[in-house]
Write a structure and sequence with these properties.
With 299 residues, the chain is an alpha/beta fold. It has 10 helices and 12 strands.
Length: 299
């Protein structure tokens, strides 16, 4: 299978300049290493009607091209179910009946970070299991054999993070992100994952799951996020942050693309002409603060 990189947005709304900057980076990483570049719509959870079409339009407008058909996670339920069945058959899962509140209120294991599942349902006896099954639907959790796992990231080096008995399928039947992302990347031949560094902490879980499924870990590059002027993660409420907003202010998509490239220390111009100047080792390692197009050059 041809190796590939990818961009995988959730179709919850229009992309903002932070999302677009990550897409440009993912494209540059993939194309500069002669990989294909795939687009996957992560619509298991949050999808707003029309958002996918807007996102594809905006990516194309700044020159982010992709290969083949766009893949949608909602069309891949049987694939996820087959992998969960395989893990179940191998004894690597268990049913969990905990509510969110019960997990929050449970005493966590010593030294475990907040939010780590304490393993409440890991060893229910048959009578308890039967009773709980009659009370509410179960989520499916991984029976993890490690407490932490180390991944290697192009920008962060070796990164060790927590692995708990994380959810594979929620109790509403929806496949969990950590399972879907691993299955999709493997099935699509994706061997390079470039995404925002807010996802670095969940990467050891995904890489550990991949190892259980005999999937080689991809090359990871977790890139800095774009922040607003208060130092918080950029969001729609931060003013003119989408291509549509910025066009209304008189800035065409090419100008926004050039601003994003400038923030990466790269020359302006079509992305294909920037490839030779792209060097992952020279990328800024700090978040970029978005102050609007009018502040161009003043970062
Ligand atoms: Zn539980």
């Amino acid at each position: 299978m041809t190796s590939a990189g990818r961009f995988a947005p959730s179709p919850s709304g229009e992309l903002h300049v932070g999302n677009l900057r990550t897409a440009v980076l993912a494209w540059l990483f993939a194309r500069s290493s002669e990989r294909n570049f795939l687009l996957r719509v992560e619509d298991l959870d949050r999808a707003r009607s029309g958002a996918e079409a807007e996102q594809l339009r905006d990516l194309a407008a700044i020159g982010v091209t992709w290969d083949g058909e766009v893949v949608r996670q909602t069309a891949r339920g049987p694939l996820y179910a087959a992998v969960i069945s395989r893990l179940q058959a191998a004894g690597l899962t268990y049913e969990c009946f905990c509510t969110r509140r019960e997990i929050q209120e449970a005493p966590s294991a010593p030294h475990a970070p907040q939010g780590t599942y304490p393993g409440t349902c890991r060893n229910l006896d048959p009578a308890e299991l039967e009773f709980k099954r009659s009370t509410r639907p179960a989520a499916v959790r991984l029976r993890a054999g490690v407490r932490e796992y180390t991944v290697h990231d192009v920008l962060h080096g070796a990164y060790t993070g927590t692995v708990d008995d994380f959810v594979l399928r929620r109790n509403d039947g929806v496949t969990a992100y950590n399972l879907a992302v691993v299955v999709d990347d493997a099935e699509q031949g994706i061997d390079q994952v470039v995404r925002g560094d807010d996802l670095l902490a969940s990467t050891p879980r995904q890489a550990y799951l991949a190892s259980l499924l005999d999937i080689p870990a991809p090359e990871y590059a977790h890139v800095p996020l774009v922040l607003n002027s208060d130092g918080l993660r950029l969001a729609k409420r931060d003013g003119a942050v989408t291509l549509g907003d910025l066009a209304a202010e008189g800035f065409p998509p090419q100008a926004v693309r050039d601003r994003l490239l400038e923030s990466l220390g790269l020359p302006a111009g079509p992305l294909s002409q920037v490839l030779t100047a792209f060097d992952p080792a020279a990328l800024p390692r700090k978040p970029w603060v978005w102050r609007g197009m009018a502040a161009a050059g003043a970062s």
